[in-house]
């Protein structure tokens, strides 16, 4: 029966490719014709001509993601400084501006397509037992392919950073930078747009898109980063930095670039033939992520209008979907971000509620894996066809929702490991979810809390009913027991796209540290890392806003450090 179900599921996916592609084409056409604010052709970022590349710049920023865009914009505010931004991807396509479309851009040319190493403890329902980790390969980075949720985090997160020996990072000091971002008053300029489209035409800022950085150039004798080697087209280019190289390639690529450039754990570099410039055992370690469990799907009886696009393959034509969306009808607006319609922070019995530092975040998504026929949800989570056929095919196109718990402060730590000296070869990602049993205990409590929400009178009125077919993953356990919830957690493990910590900020007394509190790489000159990889511990909530914050503060730190050398002052 399993083989038959899988065959039917596969053919249904193939048959829905046509209508799905038509929706995308019509949306793109509609935006071109009716939404000039999204097209924004006059302000779109353009690369310089490669023949106009200067021999040297004051600052080279590697990576045009969330942090890199902030840094390039802020550093180029000083007209006496020249700044080069190198981004491996291109400018964002039109449909990226629609948050509902973010899963479409996962596993696409705008995604680096990382995967974790196989495990027998998590992601058991996923292809090859691997968790799929999307990372944005586009100007704006992950902020361009995420669900556009802004969460500061908890004040205790940043106070804890300071307590770990990182002065200046306490909440009272970083709050200013959150408020600075929240004071954006230019309509239409937010995600890449808020920083780059207003600054890219400055004469002292050059941007090269589709520039693949291969290596940082570090002089062994002076122990100074003096430039980068990158590929553009079919040619390799070397460009020098007279002040600093700033690595903002993200929590996976930043440690990889450090290691292939000779900065990292000696025991990893030497077997691959990489000359060790600076032995830093912490590079690639301390990996943390907000693991979630997304498999607890609940069907319900809906008397309201169907959500747009989610059901379009089975219930409306592609043209009807696009027309409704562009017209801004209530049905269309309800899909602004249906997979994360609301969220809440809660404390389980393992967390002292008096601390006001919740250990679980609950996401309520307005559709489940079966509601869209698997075209978006199954593909984004990389659930196998076999598992989808067994557990979700019976709910095909039914109204459903999910309440997914996220583990806020995991005790488990993973690491990034080089598999090759070639930076084009993705590193091994050891997520190590649930290595610490406490993490699973908290996740089980989070799932039970989410289930209790579905038993409230309001949910009962909608006949909210859990998908019992997921029990097929572990039929030997008691239904709704702790073992049942643990089974779901191990099968339907899913990243919420928040890897951090692999270039840890720490005082000199911490041997696992990579950068100091002013974000300078230990033992080297002229090199900083400024992105989510420097976070010593993961914040309570979505990490994009904290990443923007640390880039804003990082830019100010650089300005402070160079103030007395800068012509004209500040």
Automatic annotation (TrEMBL):
InterPro entries: FAD/NAD-bd_sf, GMC_OxRdtase, GMC_OxRdtase_N, GMC_OxRtase_C
List of residues binding FAD: 138, 213
Statement: the UniProt record of this protein carries the keyword Transferase: no
GO MF term set: flavin adenine dinucleotide binding; oxidoreductase activity, acting on CH-OH group of donors
Domain named Glucose-methanol-choline oxidoreductase N-terminal: residues: 250-264
One GO cellular component term noted in the UniProt record for this chain: egg chorion
Cofactor: FAD
Keywords for the protein's UniProt record, in alphabetical order: FAD, Flavoprotein
Keyword Flavoprotein assigned: yes
Family stated for the protein in its record: Belongs to the GMC oxidoreductase family.
Name of the molecule in the record: GL27080
């Amino acid at each position: 029966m399993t083989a038959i179900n899988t065959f039917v599921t596969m053919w249904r996916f193939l048959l829905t490719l046509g209508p799905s592609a038509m929706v995308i084409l019509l949306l793109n056409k509609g935006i071109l014709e009716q939404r000039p604010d999204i097209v924004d052709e006059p302000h779109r970022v353009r690369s310089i001509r490669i023949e106009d590349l200067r021999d040297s710049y004051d600052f080279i920023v590697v990576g045009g993601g969330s942090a890199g865009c902030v840094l390039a914009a802020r550093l180029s505010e000083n007209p006496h400084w020249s700044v080069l931004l190198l981004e491996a991807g291109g400018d964002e396509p039109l449909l990226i501006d629609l948050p509902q479309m973010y899963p479409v851009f996962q596993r696409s040319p705008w995604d680096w397509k990382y995967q974790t190493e196989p495990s027998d403890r998590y992601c058991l329902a996923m292809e090859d037992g691997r968790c799929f980790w999307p990372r944005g390969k586009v100007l704006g980075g992950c902020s361009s392919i995420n669900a556009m949720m802004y969460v500061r985090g908890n004040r205790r997160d940043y106070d804890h950073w300071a307590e770990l020996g990182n002065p200046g990072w306490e909440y009272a000091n970083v709050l200013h930078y959150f408020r600075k971002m929240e004071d954006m008053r230019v309509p239409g300029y937010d995600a890449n747009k808020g920083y780059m489209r207003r600054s890219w035409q400055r004469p002292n800022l050059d941007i090269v898109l589709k520039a693949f950085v291969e290596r940082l150039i570090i002089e062994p004798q002076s122990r100074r980063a003096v430039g980068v080697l990158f590929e553009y087209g079919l040619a390799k280019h070397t460009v020098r930095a007279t002040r600093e190289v700033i690595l903002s390639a993200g929590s996976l690529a930043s440690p990889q670039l450090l290691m292939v450039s000779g900065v990292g754990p000696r025991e990893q570099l030497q077997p691959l033939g990489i000359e060790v410039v600076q032995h830093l055992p912490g590079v690639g370690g301390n990996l943390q992520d907000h693991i979630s469990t997304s498999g607890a799907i609940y069907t319900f009886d809906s008397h309201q209008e169907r959500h747009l696009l989610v059901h379009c393959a089975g219930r409306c034509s592609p043209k009807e979907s696009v027309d409704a969306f562009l017209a801004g009808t209530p049905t269309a607006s309800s899909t602004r971000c249906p997979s994360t319609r609301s969220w809440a922070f809660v404390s389980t019995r393992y967390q002292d509620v008096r601390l006001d530092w919740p250990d679980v975040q609950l996401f309520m998504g307005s559709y489940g894996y079966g509601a869209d026929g698997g075209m978006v949800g199954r593909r984004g989570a990389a659930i196998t066809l076999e598992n989808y056929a067994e557990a979700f095919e019976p709910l095909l196109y039914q109204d459903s929702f999910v309440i997914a718990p996220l583990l806020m402060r995991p005790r488990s730590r993973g690491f990034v490991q080089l598999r090759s000296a070639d930076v084009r070869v993705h590193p091994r990602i050891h997520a190590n979810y649930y290595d610490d049993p406490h993490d699973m205990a908290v996740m089980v409590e989070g799932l039970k809390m989410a289930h209790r929400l579905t038993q409230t009178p309001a949910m009962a009125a909608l006949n909210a009913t859990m998908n019992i077919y997921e029990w097929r993953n572990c039929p030997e356990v008691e239904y709704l027991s702790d073992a049942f919830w643990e089974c779901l957690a191990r099968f339907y493990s899913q990243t919420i796209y928040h890897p951090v910590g692999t270039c840890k900020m720490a005082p000199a007394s911490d041997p696992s540290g990579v950068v100091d509190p002013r974000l300078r790489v230990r033992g080297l000159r002229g090199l900083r890392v400024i992105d989510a990889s420097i976070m010593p511990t993961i914040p309570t909530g979505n990490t994009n806003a904290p990443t923007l914050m640390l880039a804003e503060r990082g830019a100010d730190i650089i300005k402070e450090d160079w103030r007395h050398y800068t012509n004209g002052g500040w």
